[in-house]
Amino acid sequence: MSSVAVTPDPEITPKSADASLGGTTRADRVKRRLTSPGATIAALIIAVIWTIPTFGLLLSSFRPAGQISTTGWWTFFGDPQLTLANYGEVLFSGSASSPQLGEYFVNSLAIAIPGTIIPLVLAALAAYAFAWVKFKGSSTLFVVVFALQIVPLQMALIPLLQLFVTFLQPFQDALHEAVPFISERQFLPVWIAHAIFGLPLAIFLLHNFISAIPADVIEAARVDGAGHGQIFFRIILPLATPAIASFAIFQFLWVWNDLLVALVFSSGTPDTAPLTQRLAELAGSRGENWERLTAGAFVSLVVPLLVFFGLQRYFVRGLLAGSAKG
Amino acid sequence: MSTMDLIGKVMQALVGLAAFGVVMALLLAFLDRPEDKPRMASWGAAIKQGLRPRVILIAAFALIAVLARVLYGAVPWMTQELTNAAILVGVAGIAVVVLQWLLDRLLQPAAPRVRSAVMRLLGAALVIALVILAQMAESIPALDWVTPALVLAAPIVGWPLAAALLATAAIAFLPDRIRRHVRLIAWLVAAVAVVAVAFVLEQGREQPIGVWPWAAAAALSIVGVLGYLADQHDDSKPMLVFLMPAALLLTVGLVYPAIRTTVLAFTDASGTFNGIENFVWMFTQPEALVTLGNTVVWVILVPLLSTAIGLAYAVFIDKSRGERVYKMLVFMPMAISMVGASIIWRFMYAYRGPEQEQIGLVNQVIVWFGGEPQQILQNSPWNTLALIVVMIWIQTGFAMVVLSAAIKGVPTEQLEAAEIDGANPWQRFANVTVPGIRTSLVVVVTTISIATLKVFDIVRTMTAGNFNTSVVANEMYTQAFRSGEPGRGAALALILFIMVLPVVVYNIRVLNQQKAIR
Fold first, then answer.
1. Which InterPro entries match (chain A) (predicted)?
2. Is B263 on the interface with A (CB under 8 A)?
3. How large is the ipTM?
C-alpha cells in the first residue's frame, strides 16, 4: 500500500530537472499560469485556519489561569503575560484535584515502547519466514494475514477482553504476589492487544521490503556458515531498516495516540492508564477547567509533534501504508 | 507519584521486554543448534568464540549475588532467605559456567554429541550430589547456613533437573529418525510432570500454589513444539518457527474474537441466543437510529470535504514558494491524537454567556458578526457538524499529501498540450489533472471513509455521544462496556465490519490494479 503516494517523488525529480534544463523552462511557464494570486491567497487562508486552533491552544497553555477562563487568547497580543505555572500544575502537583499527568506520561511511554517493539520483532521474524521459506499455502496464508487488516478492532474487543480476564488475570495476580511492588494492574494486556492489532500491517510492510532483498546475499551468507540468527541480525535487519523505521514510527504514534484500546484493556487507574485516557476523562469531568486542559493536551502532543517534525519522511511513509489499519 | 510506583512501572516494562527477548532468543537458538555448528579450527578461535557468552553469564550471576546483598536490609521484601538463595544461585551459577567451560576444552577431540552427553551426565551427578548433601546439611556443621526452606527446595528442583539431564543425554544417542519425536514427547512429559507434582505438593499445604505450574507447563509445551518444528534436516523449513508467534497471536487475538463477536451479536445481555433482536433494536429504537444516521452523515461529509479541501490546497500550493512549510502546517493535525484534537476544538467551541467575554474563537467570531453565542456542542443537529469539522481538520492533511504527490506525477507535456489547445486553467485541471490522479483520489476517499466509519475518540472526548451525536463505534463501546449489553455492542461491531468491508475490498482491488500496471 505504500506505493500509493511515496513512489512518485523520485520519478518526478529528474523529469522536472530535465525540463528546466532544456529551453526557457517550459515547466516554469506552465506553472506560473497555474498559480494565480487568488490561489495563493486561498492557500494562505486554509493554512491559517488549519493552524489557528493548535496555535490558540499552545498560547493559552502558557497564559495565567485567571486569564484563560475570562478572556480569549487573541487578547494576549494586547496584554502579553506568560507563565509556566499550568505545566507545573498538571505535571507535578501532588494535590488530589490536579490531573497528575506526570504519572500518565510514564504510563504512555511504558505502553508505547513495548507496544512498538513487540509487534515489530514478531513481524520481522514472520516476514523473514514468509519471504524466504517455500512451503505449501505460503501465499494464501500471507493474503489471509493481509486481509486481517480489514477486521475493525472493534470486532475483537469484547472476546479479547474475556480471554484476558480468564487466562491472563491469574498470572498477573500471581506476579503481583511474587513481586509485590509490581501492581496487579499491569501493562501486559495493553501490550498484547497493541501487538495483535499492529501485526497484520507490520508483516505486510516488512514482507514487501524483506522479499526484495536479493537471494544471492542470503545464499552467500549461508554458504559462509551463518545461522538464521546471524542472517537475520546481520543482513535482514540492516537492509530492512527504512521499512522498520517507518513502521516503528507509525506504530509508536498509533499506540501513543490511541484511546479505544487503552479504555478497554487498561485498568483506567493511574497504574496503567495512558495520557489520552486521562485527558478524555478530564475533558468529560472538568470540561471548563481550561488552564489544565490546554496544558495537559499540549503535554500529550509534544511527543507526536517531535516525532512529526524530526522524522517526517518515515512518518509519512508509515502513515500512508497504515492508514487502513485498525 | 511515589518512587515505588515509578520503579514498579519501569520494572514491568523491563521485565516484559526481557521476557520477550528471552523467548525470541530461544527461538533463534532452536534454529541454530550448537551441534550443527562447524567445528572450530583452532583452540584460539574456539576459546574466543566460547568466551564472550560465558563472561556475560558469569557477570550476570555475579550481579544477582551482589544485588541481593545490596538490597538486603534496604528494601523490606528482601528477606534473609531470599538473599541467601540469591547468593547461592550466583555462586553456583559461576561455578557451573567455569566447570562447563573447562570440561568443554578437555573434551574438545570428542564428537559434539558425545561431548554434550558427558557434560550432561556429569551435571546430573553433580545435582544429585548436591541434593543428597542438602538433606544431610543438618548433621554437617559447615553447612549450618542451609535453611529448612533450601533443604525442602533442593529435591523439588534437583531430582527433575537430574532426570531431565539424564534423559537429554540418552536422547542424543537415539537414531536420527526418531530423535525429534522422542524430544517432543520428553518436553510434553515434563510439562505434565510439572502439573502433576504441583498437585501432589498442593495436597499437603493449606495455601494453593496457584497458576505457576500451569505457566511452567505451558512454557515447556511451547518450547517442545517449537523445537520439534525447528528440528528438521531440510534447511528452510525450520524457519517456520518464526511464523509461530505471529500466527498464534493473530489467531487468538483477531480471528477467534472476530468469529466470537459474530456469534455474540445474536445473544442478549445474559449470553443466551435471541436471534436478530439486537439488530431489530438497532433499526427501530430512536437512539440507535440516530447513531446510524449520524454515521451516514459522517461518512458522506468527511471524505468529501477533506478530499475536496485537500485537493484544492494541493493544487494551490503546487510548485509555489514555501511548499514544504505549507504542507507541514496542514499535515500536522495528522500526527496528534484525536483526543488532543478534540480538546483543541472544544477550546475553539468554548461557550460563555452573551453578557460575558467569549474565550472560544468560534463564538467570538459569531459575536463579532453580531450573532448570539451558541452552545455549539449541545445544539443538535449542528453539534454533529461541529464534530465532523474536527475530523475534516485531521484528515485534510492526509488527502493533501497523497494528492500533492499524485499531481506532481501528471506529465507536464499533457498540461502544455492542453494549454496550446486553448484550455483555461480550470479546464486543464478538470480534464487533465483530475483524470491523471484518479486512482489516488479513490484511495484517499476510501481510506478516509474507513477511518471515519471507525471514528471513536472524537465523539468520546467531545460529547461522549450525548446530545444526539453518537456514532456506531462510540455506541458499540457504550453498549458493550458501559451498559452491560455485549450482545448489542457485538451487533454494532458487526454492522461496522459490514460497512467497512466493501470499501476495503474496493481499495485493495484498486491497489492491485495499480500494481499490475506498474
1. MetI-like, MetI-like_sf
2. no
3. 0.81
Cβ-Cβ contacts under 8 Å, B493 against chain A: 152, 154-155, 157-158
Distance CA B250, CA A200 (A): 8
User: Per the structure block, which three cell numbers stand in for B364?
Assistant: 467570538
What is the full DSSP assignment across B352-380? --TTSPP-SHHHHHHHHTT-----TTTST
Task: Please give the Cα distance from B496 to B490 (Å, whole number).
Answer: 10
Max mean pLDDT range (A219-223, B179-183, B227-231, B476-480): B476-480
Beta carbons of B9 and A149 less than 8 Å apart: no
Helical axes A275-285 vs A241-257, angle rounded to 10°: 30
Domain annotation for chain A: domains and CATH numbers: 15-92 (no CATH), 101-322 (1.10.3720.10)
Contact A102, A92 (CB under 8 A): yes
Q: Which residues contact B156 (CB under 8 A, 6 or more apart)?
A: B197, B201
pLDDT, tens only, B268-280: 877 778 878 888 8
Cell of B386: 461541529
The three cell numbers locating residue B74: 534496604
Cβ atoms A63, A75 nearer than 8 A: no
- Closest partner CB to B335 (pick from A170, A287, A307): A307
Beta carbons of A8 and B16 less than 8 Å apart: no
Q: What's the pLDDT tens digit per position in B416-456?
A: 888 888 888 888 888 888 888 888 888 888 888 888 888 88
Residue for grid cell 484544492: B312
Comparing CB atoms, the residue among B328, B337, B462 nearest residue A300 is B337
Tell which wins on pLDDT, A322 or B457: B457
| Cβ pair A125:B342 closer than 8 A | no
Set of chain A residues whose Cβ sits within 8 Å of the Cβ of B338? 257, 259
Q: How far apart are CA B229 and CA B26, in angstroms?
A: 13
Smallest Cβ–Cβ distance between A260 and the set B10, B359, B456 belongs to: B456
Report the percentage of chain A scoring pLDDT > 70.
83
Strand partners, B273: B267
- Residue A30: pLDDT band (50, 70, 90) is low
Residue B304: exposed, middle, or buried by beta-carbon count in 10 A (0-12, 13-18, 19+)?
middle
